[in-house]
Specification:
alpha/beta, Rossmann fold, three-stranded antiparallel beta sheet
Length: 244
């Protein structure tokens, strides 16, 4: 039986500013199982990205608790690769910062990069890569530190539509093959449906869980899911829930 790797229990978060208090979340509860891919969607401004900061331990709840087993890897909206470092040195950066850059970890990171199509680009610089390749490098950089859960903060939003579809498939395949747990924040309903095992729908601020759906496509290829007749059914349902 799989265990919960991330648990939010009645989480309330209050932001304090000179203008007063803002309640970002209240009574927020959900779980993410080991090996599960969960997507969270919600109305604009409801504080979706705040959840990742709570999950990563960057913020502490005002009430309730967040329980996380193991380490996290954070993938941002933009790849944030350093232009003056080669692709290989960008990938190795988290290991350097964490003082984990042993010969064995270096070889594992290189093997991961080669496994997913970056072998011929390790000596290149980010400006020499396409947007899709840069995002793949950013994911490999995140995976190189062997996190127990991946936190994905709209990682495809900066890409054009066609590139986005291809990169979404690449990233999903890598996460699935490496058997990683992932929590995705997105404003894109189609993206959530094409990627996730479960979709959690939030209310407006203060964010609470409004609905939780287990997707039943029977396969995990994002492009094939988009072609499935159930895709439009799920899209219509989630659209209605977001705009209720």
């Amino acid at each position: 039986m799989k265990e919960n790797i991330l648990t939010f229990e009645n989480v309330k978060l209050i932001y304090h500013t000179v203008r007063g208090e803002t309640v970002a979340t209240e009574g927020l509860s959900f779980t993410v199982e080991e090996g599960e891919f969960v997507a969270i969607i919600g109305p604009s401004g409801c504080g979706k990205s705040t959840l990742l900061s709570l999950a990563a331990g960057l913020l502490s709840p005002s009430e309730g608790k967040v329980v996380r087993r193991g380490s996290v890897g954070y993938m941002l909206q933009r790849d944030e690769l350093f232009a003056w470092r080669t692709v290989e040195r960008n990938i190795l950066l988290p290991l350097e910062i964490g003082k984990k850059l042993t010969p064995a970890m270096r070889e594992e990171a290189r093997a991961l990069a080669e496994k997913y199509g970056l072998k011929d680009f390790l000596g290149s610089y980010p400006t020499e890569l396409s947007g899709g390749m840069r995002q793949r490098a950013a994911l490999i950089r995140t995976l190189a530190a062997a996190p127990d859960i991946l936190l994905l903060d709209e990682p495809f939003s900066a890409l054009d539509y066609q590139t986005r579809l291809n990169v979404t498939k690449d990233v999903a395949n890598i996460i699935r093959r490496e058997n990683k747990t992932a929590l995705l924040i997105t404003h894109d309903i189609s993206e959530a449906i094409s990627l996730a095992d479960r979709v959690i729908v939030l209310t407006g601020r203060p964010a609470r869980v409004a609905h939780v759906h287990t997707l039943d496509f029977g396969e995990n290829d994002p492009l094939k899911r988009r072609e499935n007749k159930q895709f439009s059914v799920w899209f219509e349902l989630l659209w209605k829930e977001l705009n209720a």
